[in-house]
Amino acid sequence: EAQVTQNPRYLITVTGKKLTVTCSQNMNHEYMSWYRQDPGLGLRQIYYSMNVEVTDKGDVPEGYKVSRKEKRNFPLILESPSPNQTSLYFCASRESPAGELFFGEGSRLTVL
Amino acid sequence: AQSVSQHNHHVILSEAASLELGCNYSYGGTVNLFWYVQYPGQHLQLLLKYFSGDPLVKGIKGFEAEFIKSKFSFNLRKPSVQWSDTAEYFCAVTSASGGYQKVTFGTGTKLQVIP
User: Going by fewer Cβ within 10 Å, which terminus of chain B is more open, N or C?
Assistant: First the structure.
């Protein structure tokens, strides 16, 4: 089954404690991206990746890092989380630059 | 910079009523347009998309959208909504100028259908 898998789905952490949200897709898509969803703001792109070792900033990259060492994986790293990063995070992949996005189930992060 | 506006933030309809959700984008060049739906507690799924050709596109579950280039609009329509259409709807755009890398979403419209 084609899917995008994120882990963890739910996480409560404290300010400053580094965390990583993993994302893996089994569709051999070159393009992957991360979004955060906040009430009234919709989805905002954090980072995207066009291929292995190729990443670029989206609209709200501050406080986040990503890496793309393998085609299937695109982890999101919060080096020093802060309460304003409390949000619902979605990873997505697509086959081509203009194609539809396939989303993971989401990761709800709370930073205390 | 491309942007997307969804002016209806919350819409409440009775079952069988007709639906039209507005979407306007700012970019004047070549664009690809999408409508995604997010059912409660779930991730986003594609409803329909427009790349080129017939400006009236049909999607899943009886939804359709019309691309009107002169109005920079891509409104979503359904003739008769059902309770199961209760969800949040997002319009999204990618543009040729950015190599289609960046995807910009609207702020979403919450649709509540009353039985």
Answer: C
Provide the shortest C-alpha distance from residue A74 to chain B (in Å). 16
Residue bearing tokens 């969803």: A37
User: Residue B70, SS3?
Assistant: helix
Q: Which two tokens stand for residue A75?
A: 């982890």
Chain A CB contacts of B104 under 8 Å are 45, 59
Structure tokens at A17: 């404690």
Minimal Cβ distance to B43: which of A40, A48, A106: A106
CA A98 from chain centre, in angstroms, equals 19
Residues 60-89 of A with CB under 8 A from B: none
Q: Which residues of B touch A60 (CB under 8 A)?
A: none
**Could you give the CA distance from residue A103 to residue B105 in angstroms, rounded to a whole number?**
14
Nearest CB partner across the interface for B103, out of A101, A104, A105: A101
Neighbours of A108 (CB within 10 A): 14
Q: For A16, left (φ over 0), alpha (ψ -120 to 50), or beta?
A: left
Query: What pLDDT does B102 receive?
Result: 82
Q: Give one word for A71, left, alpha or beta, with left for phi > 0 and alpha for psi -120 to 50.
A: alpha
Asked if the C-beta of A33 comes within 8 angstroms of chain B's C-beta atoms, the answer is yes
DSSP code per residue over B32-43:
EEEEEEE-TTS-
* pLDDT per residue as tens digits for the range B31-84: 899 999 999 988 899 999 999 899 999 999 999 999 999 999 999 999 999 999
